[in-house]
Each structure stands twice: as C-alpha cells, then as structure tokens.
Amino acid sequence: MKNVLMLASEAVPFIKTGGLADVVGSLPKTIDKRYYDCRVMIPKYMCIPWEWRQKMEYVTHFYMDYLGQSRYVGVLKYEQDGVTYYFIDNESYFSGDRPYGDWYWDLEKFCFFCYAALSALPLLDWHPDLIHCHDWQTGLVPVLLHDKFAGGEFYRSIKSVITIHNLKFQGVWDVKTIQRFTQLSDYYFTADKLECKKDGNLLKGGIVYADAITTVSDTYAEEIKMPFYGEGLDGLLRAREHDLRGIVNGIDYDEWNPETDKFLVKNYNAKNFRKEKARNKKALQEEWGMDVDPGKMMIGIVSRLTDQKGLDLVECIMDELCQDDIQFVVLGTGDEKYENMFRHYDWKYHNKVSAQIYYSNAISHKMYAACDAYLMPSLFEPCGLSQLIALRYGTIPIVRETGGLRDTVEPFNEYEDKGTGFSFMNYNAHEMLSTIRYAEKIYYDRKRDWNKMVDRAMATDYSWRTSAMKYQELYDWLIGY
Ligand code: ADP
Ligand code: GLC
Predict the structure, then answer these.
(1) Which CATH number characterizes residue 387's domain?
(2) pTM assigned to the model
(3) Domain residues for 148?
(4) Which residue minimizes the CA distance to atom 7 of ligand 2?
(5) For the segment 66-94, what is each residue's pLDDT rounded down to a tens digit?
(6) Which of 26, 50, 326, 463 is close enough to 252 for a disulfide, judged by CB 3.0 to 4.6 Å?
C-alpha cells in the first residue's frame, strides 16, 4: 500500500471557491484503493458549513512554535467514500467568512498551515510516502521537506509533487515578509530559489523543490514555458521541463450526471435529450422572466467573473450579440465591473438576458442543463471544469483555443461530421462573435448536425478514470514499486 497525502486550501464538499476544490474533492475518491491510501488535508475554516463541521472527529492537538509564539494546532478528521479528510484547526488563522481575502494575511495563514500540516503528521499513526501539494498555498511544503523537516527519520523518505492549477497566483510579497513567514534562512532567497524579481515567492519554492511538477492540461504545461503564460516563471519551468507534465482534470461523474441530477426540473440522457433537455430551459425562462420559448438558443456562462475568463471580449460584443435571436444567461461573482456589466445588459434586454450575480451550486446545475451552448472565451485556462460539465450535459461549448479548453473541446467540422464544440484562436471579440454566429447557424438551420454534435459531446469521457491512472503512475515512479 502506498500512502499519499493531498494538501490543499480547499476541497468539495467542505469549502469551494473554484475548480481547485472540485479536483481535490473528486480525484482522491478515484485513486485505486487497492494500492493507494490517499488522504486529504485542508484547514478547518470557520466558514465550512456547520453541517460538515459537526461531523468532524477530534484526533489530536499540540502546540507549535511559529513566529515567536506557541500556537494551537488541532487535528480533526472525517471519512467519506473511503477517503480520510484531515482538518487543521486554529481559530485565529482560519476564521472569517471566506478562505481568502487579504493577501498579506493569507500568506501568513498558509505558511502556518504548511508548518502545522507537516508537524501533525507523526501524530496521525500514518506515514505518507508522498505529499501531493496544490497551488501556492502549499508551495512551502516541498521546501520545508528539504530544510526544517529534512533531518528526522519520519520525513526523510517523503516525496513531493506540486500541481499548478493557476500560475497567476503565486503567493508573493517582499523578501523580508516571506522570509519571516517561512522562517527560512537567507540561503533560500536567491534568484534560483524563492526569490523572483526581488520578491519572495512561495509557489516558486514549491516548483524548485518538489520532486515532480504537474499542471492540469497538456497545452497549459506547454504554454507556461513561454513568457505570455509563464507569469515570470517560464524560465524556471523550462529548466524543470523534464519533471513537468500535464494531466487533464476530470469531473465527478456522480455529481454531474443529467440522468440523476436532483437539481433538474427534468432529467435526461444521451437517448432522450432531444425531447427532454429543453424542459429545463423553459423552467429557467419562466423563473427569470425571459421570453418563454424552448426553441430559442440559450447561451450560458457559469464562472468567476474575472479577467482570466475573457469577459472583456463578451462586454465588447454584447450589444451586437443581443440583436441576434438568442438568449444569454450568466451565473457568477467576481470583479465589480463585470458584475455591473451583466446587470446592465439584463436591464437593457430583459426578455433575453438574465444576470444571476451570486454563487449557487444548485442554480449552476440547472444552467448547465438548460443552456444549448456554453461560452468560455478565456484569456488563459489551465484546465477548466465548466466546459467538461457542459459536455456531459449536452451543452455545446464555445471556447477559445487555450490551455485545457484546447485539449478537451474538439472543434466542429461540418465536412467530416466531427467535433464536440466551437472554438476560435485569437483573443479577439469579433472572432468570438463570428464563432458564436456560426454556432447559431448550425443550431437553427441544421438541427440534425447540432444534435449529432450533442450526441458526441455527451459520449466524451471526462470522468477521472484515465487521469487518476496518470497520477498513480507518477506516484509509483516517485515512490518506487
Ligand atoms: P476556475 O477554477 O478557474 O474558477 P473551473 O472551470 O476550473 O474554473 O471551475 C469552476 C467551478 O466553479 C465549476 O464547477 C463552476 O461550475 C463553478 N462555479 C463558478 N462560479 C459559480 C457560481 N457563481 N455558482 C456556482 N458555481 C460556480
Ligand atoms: C484553476 C484554473 C482552472 C482549473 C482549476 C482546477 O482554478 O483556473 O482552469 O480547471 O484550477 O484545476
């Protein structure tokens, strides 16, 4: 049996702000339990719903010296679907109504988390052979395994992997601050280690010291070796390219299944979607006061509303798009400028646009089922889960060819009867608009072709099966057979 500990800042069903939580929540369930004991550790945030917090069992607690004070570290656990989840408790660090907010505080919080997690391990009656870290919040762990924790017998053999879900966020502050929070010596603050453009950088530490690096699609693994996508770390990623690989994400096929989804007005499957899927659309049209017409093409977005998601392109063509025979629905929160932009178009074209500016898992399920097409014109996209969910719900993705979008959506080819979506290459609003209009044409004028595309979309397999095997191969390679 090989023991693997996933260390992350969020995991479904406990706490989620983005796709990272979906991955950490669903990948461990799929790792083959006959050969691997894969456990997960996240902070015990006060904002984890009470429903989950009340189920956690106390394991142990201890006091740890951190930043000159003795700090409480509690460990709790909860088991679900054969996976053990550990929670690191400290009420002063993990309070608040969201996991993140203030950068400076977050840096200290997650450095504490890394120290607490490693210090807790010997008390768990369980020895991980490998720690699988996710994103900048856990970037300090591979460094600590080479430094503060390198001496002891317990830690010596532990391997580390770091998965980059989004290179945009690196955990950066001036060297003095990062040095204080990490409690590392001057040795680590040079340009080949944790220093990056004169600042301290936690993700960089993880990338330099982890035994292997992964990211969440093949294309993104290539892109980040180039300056445009590399966010200042492209040189380092080129230097470590032999230890870097892309493994595309999957989605939880139990949670995302139009046939059994309890949030839908009408369940459907690959056989009956022609008749049944549109009943979900009609329900949303009624609920949100749009023109009720199940034959109208509905385009949707469910997303964090940030620059990453290509929303400036949408803003640029929204008036033109609204002249077409379509409806447009959006569910999301994020930058105020985008929230207000969508509110404005909802007001201006009330019968065809609906802006739902909040977070709701239930509504997201309804939208994936209701829409005919799903728009995702991202500036960059390490993997993207929304387009995978859309495919499973027979909702045709319209995407920009970048990162995981390029790897998971096959462009429609009308001559060869191929493809599962529509795509465009350049970050250009009118290139996007003409792609949407091409999709409209197929939807209205060539329904048979459209439905055949839905057949193909629903037949794709983006469950975790294949990708979990790739992680297992990587674990085997690092731990040894
Ligand atoms: P990212 O992690 O960059 O935000 P992904 O596509 O990987 O993008 O994952 C986003 C996940 O968050 C998807 O499961 C999507 O459905 C969900 N999501 C985003 N915004 C909302 C929202 N407002 N309400 C419900 N779910 C949302
Ligand atoms: C990040 C990326 C997204 C990816 C997710 C899970 O949030 O922005 O593309 O799907 O992580 O890996």
Answers:
(1) 3.40.50.2000
(2) 0.97
(3) 2-250+465-479
(4) 19
(5) 999 999 999 999 999 999 999 999 999 99
(6) 26
